[in-house]
Design brief:
binds fe (ii) ion, about 10% strand, 6-stranded parallel β-sheet, alpha/beta, globular, single chain
Length: about 375
Amino acid sequence: MSQAIVLPKLLQVGQGALDTVGEIAIQLGCRRVMIISDPVMESLGQVERLRKIIDSAGVESETFTNTIPEPTEASILPAVTQVIDGHYDGVVALGGGSVIDSAKAIALLAKTRGRIRDHSVPNIVKMPIMPLIAIPTTAGTGSEVTKVTIITDQANDEKLLCMGPGLIPSAAVIDFELTMTAPTRITADTGIDALTHAIEAYVSGKAGLFTDQQALMAMKLIAPNLRQAVSTPNNTKAKEQMMLGATLAGVAFSNASVALVHGMSRPIGAHFHVPHGMSNAMLLPTVTEYSIPAAKPRYAECARAMGVADASTSDEQAVELLLNELKQINRDLEVPTMAQFGIDQQAYFDCLEVMAEQALASGSPGNNPRVPDKNQVIALYKAAW
Ligand SMILES: [Fe+2]
């Protein structure tokens, strides 16, 4: 069976990549771009720095820095109006996954003049959005290379998933220097998110030979560097390898899909406002243990790629070592339990039925090597508590 691979036209990778954004805008035919970012990047001076880089290439720019974490449609509509009324011909996103997701939605609605719900699944975004240059400032979500965005409908807290080849950014600028100042917790959470992308893409029912290579290489880059990237923030080698690993993991899951961890993680995020990578981390050991019997050789390869097993290790041993490592990563990175995070136990258990339904409705669990029914999802939520 063949596998469709959708990638940005251009990837600029490595230290100093940010300095090329003006030239990239010119290459994409942009003369007047809207920079989308957030208040943190603005206060760090990074938005102004980017503006100067763009300006020096002779490209006009304006900024919109009012994006929010877990973006809602209401949060992005002012920027859509600004892009349309100002006759901008491109969008530049500078920030983490929420900023890049916001920018994708802005570039989509500025082009189509519709609403998010017109484009969310089961619809597929096939028409290209406005030219978008995505510049991640965290090593994690992979949003710079994915054809997916998640925007919340603020009317009912529903997370609307938009996906399709049209949503792929035109260019991704992957400069690990931008991650050097990320707070420790964000480095940890986004790093575990990236590791989860790689593992899930590798065991996904939609995996293929191309995405397998990206996923395995991502695990090789992320696993030995994740702890160091968190504990020694000035470690440029660890940051560089994490950044590339996160991007490769993004390529892998954008084209091979995520699976049960992400399916179950999104409802926890929506109901209890747990950061995305952290809710993945809370679920990853439990869901991996449940899934291993259906894909033991694949999970054993994950252990080998992550460096906790080698070619001489049996699959049986390797999957045990993988589980131990996933639990140890959570301990070392101080991932809280759900109770420690402050989720009310009664509220959580009252919500299990709805969360299980939402998890299954997202479609991601259908890609898992072992596909659960609703009762099994509820049991997994209970086990993860
Ligand atoms: Fe993710």
